[in-house]
Hints:
Blueprint: E1 2-7, H1 10-22, E2 27-32, H2 35-38, H3 55-62, E3 68-72, E4 84-88, E5 97-100, E6 112-114, H4 118-127, E7 132-134, H5 140-149, E8 154-158, H6 159-164, E9 173-175, E10 189-194, H7 198-205, H8 210-229, E11 239-244, E12 250-257, E13 264-271, H9 274-288
Helix pairs in contact: 8-9
Amino acid sequence: MVRIATRASALARWQAERVAALLGGDAELVLVTTEGDRDQVSELHDIGGRGVFTREVQRAVLDGRADVAVHSAKDLESTTPDGLVLAAVPERADPRDALVGSTLAGLPAGARVGSGSVRRRAQLAHARPDLVFGPLRGNIGTRLARRAAAGYDAVVVAYAALERLGLAAEATEVLEPEVMLPQAAQGALAVECRSDDDVTRDRLVGIDDLVAHRAVTAERAFLAVLAASEPGGGCTIPCGALADGAAATVEVEALLATADGRTVRRARAADADPRSAGRAVAAELLAALPPGPVNP
């Protein structure tokens, strides 16, 4: 029996149950409430940035209440806590973002768009400077329900989340990476265990997808450089990254933007070492566009 620590949301439970199925179904879910679950109003960078959905789930494994932790990989901080190892990244789902309520071209001038992501706001503002943005936090079902109540013409969510919950038909437009580069590791699951738990670690090797893991490694390396340049990198800095880990050389495209979307810079790098590819593209972008403060 493998004990899987996870958040209690419908999406998080789906992800944990997916990992359980990959492991053979012999699993027990250990439900954890995180700071990001308790506070669904504040901006993420105001309550701890990256990690607000993962730290307490990780603690359940470190404390011995669970054997593995399952996360949306995009929620992880760029460095793994001492005592844990990112042991598996199963096959990745569609990493793109989706608009619900309208297509981008169909939004009227001055339309209101709901999103709590500085990355999504900056890229949409770059494409459509006329758009007005409002806050939107909560689980996928909550965000979809709040669209009409908050008077938003559209909201932005991860397409993988809609697919996993059987809500793909809600997507009015799936945004191509040329328009909206995804968050680093979006669409991927991350499975952690204790670094000294050889039995569990060996078992997780069997569900690891090398292509997805290499891509996520490159994207997380990009984030690690940003985090070193400014605490909260990935939440306070409008950025995105998408890597291809299928070939011997990992290719990664990344983006940095100003918070208002007036300036967006993209760069590419490739290397046989995924971490080197991610670091190289981050260094190039930071040199070209030193990130500024996020608009309140």
